[in-house]
C-alpha cells in the first residue's frame, strides 16, 4: 500500500485480532460432545475380556475370579478334528462342544475304555474332561456320548494361548502325537494323526505370530533399560546439537555435511569388507530370491548378495548427496544465515524446545481414547447361540437359547443337534449401527490428532513471529512469548485450526477407506478395479501432502495476522508463489540440513546400539543382555531416537518457516529506508 512512516509504537501485525471461523469452532465442540457420548455408550456396553480370554460353548470366560471357572484356565475341544471344517473361518467357532479344564489331558484314552476299565481312577480322571453337570458315572456310554456330556476320546495335549492343542511333534518327518501316528477316535475307528494337525492348524491360525510376539516381548523385558539409556543419549545429542547450532551454525552445517559423507563412506567400506570376508564361504552365494522370506533376519547377513545390495544403495546415496552439495553451495550460505537467525529465536524462547512434549502428550491422549473406544465398541455385543448339527437338519444355523434348547422341537427332530455359542452380535439399533460408530471413531481420531498438531504449529509460529516483529530484539518481545501465543491460538483461532484439520481428516479417512477396499479386493481378479484404486490411492496421497504443506503455511499466516483460514491459506500461497525460487531452495536446503542432522544422531546412536547389543564392544561385553532377536532393541532405539530428533528439529523447522514467511512479508512491506526500516536483523 502507501509508504508507511516508521512508527515505534507499531508492534508488527501480531496483536490486533478477533475470532475466526466461528462455525467450525461450534462444529468441533458439537463433534467432541458426540464423541464423548459415543465413548460412554461403548464403555457401558463393551467388555474387553472378550478379546483377551477364550470363551466356552456357553460364552463364559475362562479363569475369571469369582466364577465357577476360576481354577480352570484352559479351553478344551471335545473333538478338535471338527475345527478343520470351513465353518470355523466363517463363524469363528468350532462346531464341537468346548469346556474349561484345570489342566490339559496327558494320555490317550477313549470313553469306552475308561468306562470298561477295572481301575476306578481312570473314569474319575476322564470325568475332568466332561461337561460340569455330568455326575452319573453309571450312565451307559452310548447315552453319554449321544448327549454329548463327555468327549469320545482324549489325546495328549499341551496348553497354548489358553487352549488345549494336540501335542504334535515331527520325528524324522513323521507326524506323531505322544509317540503314536494313529489313534482310536472312541467310536471304534482308527484315524491318522494328520487329521488332528488340520484341526489344530485351523483352530490355531495365530500360533506362529503369537510365538514371535512372545519372543519379542521377552527381548523387551531384558533390554528395556538399555533401550531407555539409548533414547536418553539421543535426547542429549539432539539438545547439544541444537545449542551448538546457535553459536556455530556455519561450521556445524559444513561439519555435519562432511560427517554424513564420512559415515556413508564408512558404511560402504564396512559392507565391502563383509562382502569380501564371505568370499568362498559355504552357502554365502545363495541369492536372496532363492532364500525367500525368513523370520530370523540374521540369515541374510551370511549372504554376499545382502552386503552387495547394501553397498550399492549407500554408493548411490553418497553420489546424490555430493552432486546436490556442488550445485547448491551458494544457496546453502543463505540457509545458514536463516538457521543462525532461527537459533537466536530459539535461544530467546528456550521453552519452545519442550513444547513438542505437550503436543506428544495430547496426541497420546487422542490415541488412547480412540483405541479404548474402538476396543469397547468391537466388544459391545451380546452372546449369540446357534444350532449346530453333524447330520443334515433344517434348523442348522438358526439362533437358539441354551436354557430352553433341550425342551424345544429341535432336539426331537434332530437328535444330535446342539445349541452352541457362536459369536458376539446383537439385534438392537445400537448393534446395527456399530460400524457407523466405529467409522465416526476413526474420523474423530484423525480430526482431533490433526487439531493437536495444528495447535502446536500455530503456537510455535506465533511465538517466533513475535520475535521477528519485535523491532528491538529481545526488548520488544512479550514476557512469555510461547504462553501468549498458545493463549491467542486457543482464544481466537480454534475455529480456523478446526477447519484446517477437518479438511485434512476428510482426506485421510478417504485414504483409509481406499486401503480397506484395496485389502478386500486382493482376492478378486478385477484388473480394472485394482488399477482404478491404485490411481485413487496415489492421487489422495499427493493431495494429503499438498494440504499438509498449505495448512502449515496458512497456520503461520494465522499466527502472524489473525486472519481466517481461507484468507491465510490464500495469502500464504501467493506469498510463496511470488518467492518460489527462494522457497524451493531455502525450504529444501534447510529440510536437507535438518535431515542430515537427524541422520547423524540416528546413525551414531544406531551404530552404538548395534555394537552394544551384538556384544562387539569389549569393555561392556558382559553387560549386554542375552536376546532372541538382537534387531528388536536396535530397531526400537533407532525409531525412538529418530522420533526424539524429529521432535527437536520440528521446532527448529517451524522457526525457519515462520521467519522465512515473515522475511518475505518484511521485504514486501518495507524497503530498508529510515522511513520504512526492515524488522529483520
UniProtKB/TrEMBL annotation:
Name the UniProt record assigns to this protein: Choline transporter-like protein
Listed Pfam families: Choline_transpo
Main location: membrane
Catalytic activity as recorded in UniProt: ethanolamine(out) + n H(+)(in) = ethanolamine(in) + n H(+)(out); choline(out) + n H(+)(in) = choline(in) + n H(+)(out)
UniProt superkingdom: Eukaryota
UniProt organism field: Pelecanus crispus (Dalmatian pelican)
Positions of transmembrane segments: 21-43, 224-244, 251-269, 307-328, 349-371, 444-471, 492-514, 554-577, 589-613, 629-649
Function: Choline transporter.
One of the record's GO molecular function terms: antiporter activity
GO cellular component terms, semicolon-separated: mitochondrial outer membrane; plasma membrane
Topology term for the membrane: Multi-pass membrane protein
Keywords on record: Antiport, Cell membrane, Glycoprotein, Membrane, Mitochondrion, Mitochondrion outer membrane, Phosphoprotein, Transmembrane, Transmembrane helix, Transport
PANTHER family: CHOLINE TRANSPORTER-LIKE (SLC FAMILY 44), CHOLINE TRANSPORTER-LIKE PROTEIN 2
Subcellular location per the Swiss-Prot or TrEMBL entry: Cell membrane; Mitochondrion outer membrane
UniProt similarity note: Belongs to the CTL (choline transporter-like) family.
Amino acid at each position: 500500500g502507501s509508504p508507511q512512516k516508521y512508527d515505534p509504537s507499531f508492534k508488527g501485525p501480531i496483536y490486533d485480532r478477533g475470532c475466526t471461523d466461528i462455525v467450525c469452532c461450534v462444529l468441533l465442540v458439537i463433534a467432541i460432545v458426540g464423541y464423548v457420548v459415543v465413548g460412554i455408550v461403548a464403555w457401558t456396553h463393551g467388555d474387553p475380556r472378550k478379546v483377551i480370554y477364550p470363551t466356552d460353548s456357553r460364552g463364559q470366560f475362562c479363569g475369571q475370579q469369582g466364577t465357577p471357572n476360576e481354577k480352570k484356565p484352559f479351553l478344551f475341544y471335545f473333538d478338535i478334528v471338527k475345527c478343520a471344517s470351513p465353518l470355523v473361518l466363517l463363524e469363528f467357532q468350532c462346531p464341537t462342544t468346548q469346556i474349561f479344564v484345570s489342566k490339559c489331558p496327558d494320555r490317550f484314552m477313549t470313553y469306552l475304555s475308561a468306562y470298561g476299565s477295572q481301575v476306578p481312577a481312570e473314569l474319575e480322571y476322564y470325568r475332568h474332561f466332561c461337561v460340569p453337570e455330568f455326575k452319573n458315572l453309571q450312565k451307559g456310554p452310548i447315552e453319554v456320548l449321544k448327549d454329548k456330556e463327555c468327549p469320545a476320546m482324549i489325546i495328549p495335549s499341551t496348553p497354548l494361548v489358553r487352549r488345549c492343542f494336540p501335542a504334535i511333534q515331527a520325528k524324522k518327518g513323521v507326524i506323531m502325537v505322544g509317540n503314536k501316528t494313529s489313534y482310536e477316535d472312541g467310536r471304534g475307528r482308527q484315524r491318522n494323526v494328520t487329521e488332528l494337525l488340520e484341526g489344530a492348524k485351523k483352530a490355531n491360525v495365530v500360533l506362529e505370530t503369537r510365538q514371535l510376539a512372545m519372543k519379542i516381548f521377552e527381548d523387551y523385558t531384558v533390554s528395556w533399560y538399555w533401550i531407555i539409556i539409548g533414547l536418553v543419549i539421543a535426547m542429549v545429542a539432539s539438545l547439544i546439537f541444537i545449542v551448538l547450532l546457535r553459536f556455530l551454525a556455519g561450521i556445524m552445517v559444513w561439519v555435519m555435511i562432511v560427517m554424513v559423507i564420512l559415515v556413508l563412506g564408512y558404511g560402504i567400506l564396512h559392507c565391502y569388507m563383509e562382502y569380501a570376508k564371505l568370499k568362498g564361504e559355504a552357502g554365502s552365494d545363495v541369492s536372496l530370491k532363492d532364500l525367500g522370506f525368513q523370520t530370523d533376519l540374521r540369515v541374510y547377513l551370511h549372504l554376499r548378495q545382502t552386503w552387495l545390495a547394501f553397498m550399492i544403495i549407500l554408493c548411490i546415496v553418497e553420489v546424490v548427496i555430493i552432486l546436490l552439495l556442488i550445485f547448491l553451495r551458494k544457496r546453502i550460505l543463505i540457509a545458514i544465515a536463516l538457521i543462525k537467525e532461527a537459533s537466536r529465536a530459539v535461544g530467546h524462547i528456550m521453552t519452545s524446545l519442550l513444547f513438542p512434549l505437550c503436543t506428544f502428550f495430547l496426541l497420546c491422549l487422542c490415541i488412547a481414547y480412540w483405541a479404548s473406544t474402538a476396543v469397547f465398541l468391537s466388544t459391545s455385543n451380546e452372546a449369540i447361540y446357534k444350532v449346530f448339527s453333524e447330520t443334515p437338519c433344517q434348523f442348522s444355523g438358526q439362533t437358539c437359547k441354551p436354557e430352553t434348547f433341550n425342551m424345544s422341537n429341535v432336539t426331537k427332530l434332530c437328535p444330535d443337534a446342539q445349541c452352541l455359542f457362536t459369536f458376539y452380535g446383537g439385534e438392537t439399533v445400537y448393534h446395527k449401527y456399530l460400524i457407523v460408530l466405529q467409522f465416526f471413531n476413526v474420523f474423530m481420531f484423525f480430526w482431533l490428532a490433526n487439531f493437536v498438531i495444528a495447535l502446536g504449529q500455530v503456537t510455535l509460529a506465533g511465538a517466533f513471529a513475535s520475535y521477528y516483529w519485535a523491532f528491538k530484539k529481545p526488548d520488544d518481545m512479550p514476557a512469555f512469548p510461547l504462553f501468549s501465543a498458545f493463549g491467542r491460538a486457543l482464544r481466537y483461532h480454534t475455529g480456523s485450526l478446526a477447519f484446517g484439520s477437518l479438511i485434512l481428516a476428510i482426506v485421510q479417512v478417504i485414504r483409509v477407506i481406499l486401503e480397506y477396499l484395496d485389502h478386500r479386493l486382493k482376492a478378486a481378479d478385477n484388473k480394472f478395479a485394482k488399477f482404478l484404486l491404485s490411481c485413487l490411492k496415489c492421487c489422495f496421497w499427493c493431495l494429503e501432502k499438498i494440504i499438509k504443506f498449505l495448512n502449515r503455511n496458512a497456520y503461520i499466516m494465522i499466527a502472524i495476522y489473525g486472519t481466517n483460514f481461507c484468507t491465510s491459506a490464500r495469502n500464504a500461497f501467493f506469498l510463496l508463489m511470488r518467492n518460489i525460487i527462494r522457497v524451493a531452495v531455502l525450504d529444501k536446503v534447510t529440510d536437507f540440513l535438518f535431515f542430515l542432522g537427524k541422520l547423524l544422531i540416528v546413525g551414531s546412536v544406531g551404530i552404538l546400539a548395534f555394537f552394544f547389543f551384538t556384544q562387539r564392544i569389549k569393555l561392556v561385553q558382559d553387560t549386554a543382555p542375552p536376546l532372541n532377536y538382537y534387531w528388536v532393541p536396535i530397531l526400537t532405539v533407532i525409531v525412538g531416537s529418530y522420533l526424539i530428533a524429529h521432535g527437536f528439529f520440528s521446532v527448529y523447522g517451524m522457526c525457519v518457516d515462520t521467519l522465512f514467511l515473515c522475511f518475505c512479508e518484511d521485504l514486501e512491506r518495507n524497503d530498508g529506508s529510515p522511513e520504512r526500516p526492515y524488522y529483520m536483523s
